Amino acid sequence: MTEQVFPPESLTNEAIAERLSTTVRRSVNKGLIQKKKVVYLELNGCSGNIISLLNGQNPSFEYTLTSMVDLRYSNSLMAAEGEQAMEQLMSTIDDEFILAVEGAVALKNNGLYNVIGRYKGEPLTGLQAVKWFGEKASHILAVGACATHGGVSAAKPNPSESVGLKEVLPDKDIIMLPGCPVHPDWFLGTLAHLILYGEPDMDNLNRPLMFYSTLIHDRCPRRPFFDRGIFAEKLSDKTCLFKLGCRGPVTRTDCPTRQWNGHVNWPIGDDTPCIGCASFGFPDRMEPFISFDTTRTVKDE
Amino acid sequence: MNKKIVINPLTRISGFMEIDVTVEHHKVVDVKTKGNLFRGFEQMLVNRNPFDAVYFTQRICGICSAAHSMASSLALEDALNIELLEQGRYLRDIIHCCEFLQNHIRHFYQYTVPDFVKLDQVSLVESNHEDFRLPQTVNDRMSKHYFESLAISRSAHQMLAVLGGKAPHNHGVFIGGITTKATSEKIVSLDSLLQPIAQFIEEKMIPDVYEIAYYYPEYFRLGGGYGNLLTYGAFNDYKELGTLYVNPLVSTLDSVETFDETNIREKIDYSWYKAKENTYKPEELVAEPDMDKEKAYSWVKAPRYKDLPFEVGPLARLILSGRSDLGISAMDRTIARALEAKKIVEIMQTLLNEVIPNVETQKKYELPEAASGRGLVDTTRGALGHWLKINEKKISFYQIITPSTWDFSTRDEKGLRGVAEEALIGTPIQNPDAPAEIGRILRSFDPCMSCATHVYSPGNQVKTIKVF
């Protein structure tokens, strides 16, 4: 493998995402590529990822919808309901389509803890839907923490026996986009890459390197405080939040440079620790999120 | 002739719902609303670090996550005996305002408008029912607003992130107020972002909702229900500003009284849960999931106030705050949401004017060995409550009653239906093979769950039919 050189902060990925989406639009307009069909399944979760995608800018969600993909199914957004919605979903299964899934797969009671619709009179569980569509999809995107590894839906004691997509589709290649929620650029940028060039370069856990390559800690603007041992004692302090429980040292995303919601802010910018929402252990292995007594001063050491 | 209609999934809501409706002589005679998703947050929260509840509970809901950070912060402040600085409260309420704006704009344009406006631009929003009455020019204008609104609701979330770090699932709301200091640059940024949102609400959203009402007037007579209204209070009782919106009140058709939280009970007679009692106080117990329970049909429990079901949400708040020009119907509910968006803009402007830059609201907090607290707050969809107990510095109990639990409750042991169920009773269904009415009425409540709709005909063979 050739050595990856990661760009300095001035060349962050907003620009890459924007270039990608512009190219997609041009190519679609010129008829060089077809709009790809996308099935977006919301399973056991909070539907927060689709809300996050609505927050996308460059590409925006409306642009994605009108210029990049033919979104066939989305429980949150589609006009059709009931059987009609189910038919719209099922009519896609024999086409070429990309499957995007947010939310975990609930296994309890054979999946009945999460029913996403009723097809031919029978409840359609998230579990069944993922198996059907996962088998047929050209590409699969696990969108957000619950889909990548169970996330909050699978938090101890995991009453719904929720798992990530990989557990249900062990033989499939799944592009992992962890985050709670996913950053809209991570999803829309990956989607644009898929349409234009196929799968992006990924790490050994199947996360696209263009978004998940670097530890937050390594690009944190508060890193100098860490290096000098100047630590915050409470939220709102402007120094390193490590001792309040910051998970930046174990979490790989580009949050420090990309930031959120039109690049205006991010958790550390809000004087709070990163809670590791894009780490595979989130939430159980990232807790406590906030604690005021992580370290003790030991005398005479 | 009896007919059962099943709608599953009821789309354009947050979460999953199924609805069973029995239609007799073209009228709805029975309804069951069924929540179709269970994760068990109340079980998950036990043994966690109490401070984590603020971020953890936000994951209940992607569209109204800040609401849960508000309720859990209030519950922790109650448990830890922390007095909130007024400046802290202003900032936190500003974040909450941003969520109201984001939610109401998205609910109206992305979830409600496709029921009434024919959107042909993308296949996703193609509808198959035919009851579209808007003249072409009006229809075209509103389809444009559907897409325009995406940029507006997005900037409402951007405002939220200015103080809250990110959205959904913000980091800013916390015990004591918010986690960061409001600098003058942030205050000005919010004021500047707010202006186009205010303009959009005034010039597009409110006229659009009245235009829809004009062409679909029968919805002023549909979807009424019990007429019982409840609010925990919203943007009320500021030390210097008084009440900017509405005080904690409950009303039935013949009385209005001050809300008293000791009258809340939760019932699980028809829900997939077991506990030693089927009726309990919120702070008493948390029921365990039990899908094998006979008679039960939903994951949604049934909260009651003085043993009665109550409607919560924007319409309840506006009427209880003294607006007398609104009735109780599906259309009034939808109009109320748009009118409330304008009200929230005004409140946010008032609060922004009161913010003093760089006030510190955070401290190093310590956990008690044992304590209990509750946080009740009205949020986008209505009354939200968190009740928690701490033991050995860990969460030992957590109870959550969400607004959609109030509105989409199951029936109770007395046979009283949930609010939304009752609202559908008697609804004339023009075409039982393609009932547009059910989805429109249910969406007027802005349901937040995983659910679907069915119509049953008892005794007859069940026929599942398409609902457009």
UniProtKB/TrEMBL annotation, chain A:
- InterPro entries recorded for this chain? Cytochrome-c3_hydrogenase_C, NADH_UbQ_OxRdtase-like_20kDa, NiFe-Hase_small_C_sf, NiFe_Hase_small_N_sf, NiFe_hydrogenase_ssu
Q: Where in the cell is it found?
A: Cell envelope
Task: Identify the residues that bind [4Fe-4S] cluster 1.
Answer: C46, C146, C180
Q: Name one Pfam family in it.
A: NiFe_hyd_SSU_C
Residues at which [4Fe-4S] cluster 2 binds: H217, C220, C240, C246
Keyword Ubl conjugation present in the record's keywords: the answer is no
Q: Does the keyword Transferase apply?
A: no
| Record GO terms (molecular function) | 3 iron, 4 sulfur cluster binding; 4 iron, 4 sulfur cluster binding; electron transfer activity; ferredoxin hydrogenase activity; metal ion binding
Main location as per UniProt:
other
Specify the NADH:ubiquinone oxidoreductase-like 20kDa subunit domain's residue ranges: 46-194
Q: Name one GO biological process term.
A: anaerobic respiration
Residue intervals of the Cytochrome-c3 hydrogenase C-terminal domain:
212-289
Instruction: Provide the Gene Ontology terms for cellular component.
Output: [Ni-Fe] hydrogenase complex; cell envelope; ferredoxin hydrogenase complex; membrane
Domain of life here? Bacteria
Q: Which residues bind [3Fe-4S] cluster?
A: C255, C274, C277
Q: Which UniProt keywords apply?
A: 3Fe-4S, 4Fe-4S, Iron, Iron-sulfur, Metal-binding, Oxidoreductase, Signal
Q: Which cofactor does it need?
A: [4Fe-4S] cluster; [3Fe-4S] cluster
Question: Which family is annotated?
Answer: Belongs to the [NiFe]/[NiFeSe] hydrogenase small subunit family.
Quaternary context: Heterodimer of a large and a small subunit.
The protein in question is named Ni/Fe hydrogenase
TrEMBL record, chain B:
**PROSITE patterns found in the cross-reference section:** NI_HGENASE_L_1, NI_HGENASE_L_2
Cofactor(s) listed in the protein's UniProt record: Fe cation; Ni(2+)
Keywords on record: Iron, Magnesium, Metal-binding, Nickel, Oxidoreductase
Domain of life of the native organism:
Bacteria
Protein's cellular compartments? Cell envelope
Q: Which GO terms describe its molecular function?
A: ferredoxin hydrogenase activity; nickel cation binding
Residues binding Mg(2+), per UniProt: E42, I400, H454
State a GO cellular component annotated for this protein.
cell envelope
Gene3D superfamilies per record: Cytochrome-c3 Hydrogenase, chain B
Cite the binding residues for Fe cation: C64, C451
| Pfam families in alphabetical order | NiFeSe_Hases
Q: Where does Ni(2+) bind?
A: C61, C64, C448
Entry keyword Oxidoreductase: yes
Q: Secreted among the record's keywords?
A: no
InterPro entries registered for this protein in UniProt: Ni-dep_hyd_lsu (IPR001501), Ni-dep_hyd_lsu_Ni_BS (IPR018194), NiFe-Hase_large (IPR029014), NiFe/NiFeSe_hydrgnase_LSU (IPR050867)
Family the UniProt entry places it in: Belongs to the [NiFe]/[NiFeSe] hydrogenase large subunit family.
Subunit structure, per the record?
A: Heterodimer of a large and a small subunit.
Q: What is this protein called?
A: Ni/Fe hydrogenase
Taxonomic source organism = Halobacillus andaensis
